[in-house]
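Incident log, structure service

09:12 report received: a user says their structure output differs between two submissions of the same chain.
09:20 pulled the input from the user's history:
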Amino acid sequence: MNLSITGHHLEVTAPLRDYVTQKLERITRHFDKVIDVKVLLSVDKMVQKAEINIHIRGKDIFAESTHEDLYAAIDALADKLDRQVLKHKEKQNDHGHEALKQQVQVQEQEQEQGQL
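09:34 re-ran on a clean worker, output below:
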């Protein structure tokens, strides 16, 4: 996984870098196939903003969050990203099995009605 953390109008310190890395571990725990991660931390007047762009096989996932505190913005960003990654993982693992199950149930009901 290639990790790039950049700052716009702020210096990315070691504790800030460690905090972002710690939050991203939660994402990689759910999904191993992360290829590239780009994090942009920025300050605009009194608003702290955190943006992330994750490239995984077949899809790019983007999330952003703003808050008065940069650490709180990173927390909210990690929550948003976690939900998006889990949703993508569920879609990827679904393979349409539910539709197949429903089709089998409909066929069974039709057969039962035909026998009555």
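09:41 both user submissions now match this output. Likely a transient worker issue. Closing.
09:42 reviewer note: The helical segments are 14-30, 70-94, 97-115. The mean pLDDT is 86.
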